[in-house]
Write a structure and sequence with these properties.
Elements (H helix, E strand, L loop, with lengths): L7 H4 L4 E4 L8 H9 L8 E3 L3 E2 H4 L5 H4 L7 H10 L2 E7 L3 H14 L4 E6 L4 H5 L10 H13 L5 E6 L7 H8 L6 E5 L13 H14 L5 E4 L5 H11 L3 E4 L2 H4 L13 H19 L12 H4 L6 H9 L4 H17 L1
Parallel strand pairs: 1-2, 1-9, 2-4, 3-4, 4-5, 5-6, 6-7, 7-8, 8-9
InterPro entries: Aldolase_TIM, DUS-like_FMN-bd, DUS_fam, tRNA-dHydroUridine_Synthase_C
Organism: Marinilabilia salmonicolor
Family: Belongs to the dus family.
Length: 337
C-alpha cells in the first residue's frame, strides 16, 4: 500500500531527534512527562513500547497487549502543540500476523508511522526468532517488511543493530537499504552485547555510506550512548546520520530536550517525580503495577544532599499515596532548609 499520509521521514527537519521505544518505560505517562519538559523543536518523534503482533491478533490477549499503544488525550494534545510525531513499534516473527496487526492499528489508532523491532536483544525474544534474530534471517525479515508495507498507508521503518553474535553491518545494511522502507534506525551494538560496552558509531558511519549508495533518500538514524543535545548534533555531523535516537540518555537527564542538567534544582526534581506519579495514576490506576515506577526514582532523586536516603525511603513505598507523602515531606524540608 503506498504511503498516502504525511511521511515525516521525508518532510521533517534535520537532524531528526527521537526518543527510543523502551519496555516498561515509554508508556503514555512517561512520554507526556518528557513532552512537558521539551521545548518546541528539540524533539521530533516518540515511540510506543514495543507491541507484540501475535498479541494484537489474539482476541483474548489483545486488551492487555494494546495497553502499549495507549495515547492519552493530554499526551495527544502535547504532541500537537510541540509538533512531535508518534510511531507504533511492533515485533513478532510471522508475516501474516504483521499484516493483520498493522491493519488493526490503522483502523483503531492515530499514529504517524510503524516501526518494526529488529533490534531488541533480550534472549528469550531472540530465541523466539523475533527482533534481533531477524538480522540473521533475511528471507523472513523481507517477508515481514513487505507484509507491513503492503498493509498500511503509514511510513514504515526498522530499528535494528549492527549484528547478532558478531558485527555484520555491511551485509545487513546492504539488505535493509534494498527493502521498501522509509527509515532505518541503527543501534551501534550487536545483540550479544545487550547494553554492555560502547556503541560503535564507526559502524553507523559504514551504514551511512551504504545508504548513500543504495537508497540516498532513506534517512538513517544513529542510536547508542548519546547523553546531550550537543553530543547529538556532533554525532550527526561526524558520522553522517540524519538524526539520533535517545534511549538510556533520558534516564540520565529527563530534561534533555529542555535544558542542561546543571539548571535543574532539587525542587524541580521533586516536582517532576510528583508529576510522573500523577500522570501514571491517571493513565493506569491499578491496571499496571505500581512497582514499575520505582525504576524512575533514581532519575529524579539524585545529585542533591539527602538523595540516597530519600530514594531508599521511596523504594519502600507501595502506593501512589505513600510515594506522594514521602516526596511532599521532602519538599517541605527543602523549603525549610
Amino acid at each position: 500500500m503506498p504511503n498516502t499520509k504525511n511521511n515525516f521521514w521525508k518532510t521533517a527537519k534535520r537532524p531528526l531527534v527521537m526518543l527510543a521505544p523502551m519496555e516498561d518505560v515509554t508508556d503514555t505517562a512517561f512520554r507526556e512527562l518528557v513532552l512537558h519538559n521539551t521545548l518546541p523543536g528539540h524533539l521530533d518523534v516518540v515511540f510506543t513500547e514495543f507491541t507484540s503482533t501475535d498479541g494484537l491478533c489474539h482476541p483474548q490477549g489483545r486488551e492487555n497487549v494494546a495497553q502499549r499503544l495507549v495515547v492519552s488525550e493530554t499526551e495527544r494534545q502535547l504532541l500537537k502543540e510541540k509538533g512531535v510525531k508518534i510511531v507504533a513499534q511492533i515485533w513478532g516473527n510471522k508475516p501474516e500476523k504483521y499484516l493483520e496487526a498493522v491493519k488493526y492499528i490503522d483502523e483503531n489508532y492515530d499514529f504517524d508511522g510503524i516501526d518494526i523491532n529488529m533490534g531488541c536483544p533480550v534472549r528469550n525474544v531472540v530465541a523466539h526468532g523475533s527482533c534481533s534474530a531477524l538480522i540473521d534471517n533475511e528471507s523472513l525479515a523481507a517477508e515481514i517488511i513487505q507484509a507491513t508495507s503492503e498493509s498500511t498507508s503509514l511510513p514504515v521503518s526498522v530499528k535494528t543493530r549492527t549484528g547478532l553474535k558478531k558485527v555484520d553491518t555491511e551485509r545487513w545494511m546492504d539488505f535493509l537499504f534494498r527493502q521498501p522502507l522509509d527509515g532505518v534506525i541503527l543501534h551501534g551494538r550487536i545483540q550479544k552485547q545487550m547494553s554492555e560496552g560502547e556503541a560503535d558509531w564507526n559502524e553507523i558511519a559504514k551504514a551511512s555510506a551504504i545508504r548513500d549508495d543504495l537508497a540516498p533518500d532513506v534517512p538513517l538514524i544513529g542510536n547508542g550512548d548519546v547523553f546531550s543535545l550537543d553530543d547529538l548534533h556532533d554525532r550527526c555531523k561526524r558520522y553522517k546520520t540524519d538524526g539520533v535516537m535517545i534511549g538510556r540518555g533520558i534516564f540520565r537527564n529527563p530534561w534533555m530536550f529542555q535544558s542542561d542538567l546543571s539548571n535543574i534544582d532539587t525542587d524541580q526534581r521533586l516536582d517532576t517525580l510528583l508529576k510522573h506519579l500523577q500522570l501514571y495514576e491517571a493513565a493506569w490506576g491499578k491496571t499496571r503495577p505500581f512497582p514499575i515506577l520505582k525504576r524512575f526514582f533514581k532519575i529524579y532523586i539524585s545529585d542533591f544532599r539527602g538523595a540516597a536516603e530519600l530514594r531508599k525511603e521511596l523504594m519502600e513505598t507501595n502506593s501512589f499515596e505513600e510515594a506522594r507523602r514521602v516526596v511532599e515531606f521532602a519538599k517541605r524540608m527543602e523549603c525549610g532548609a
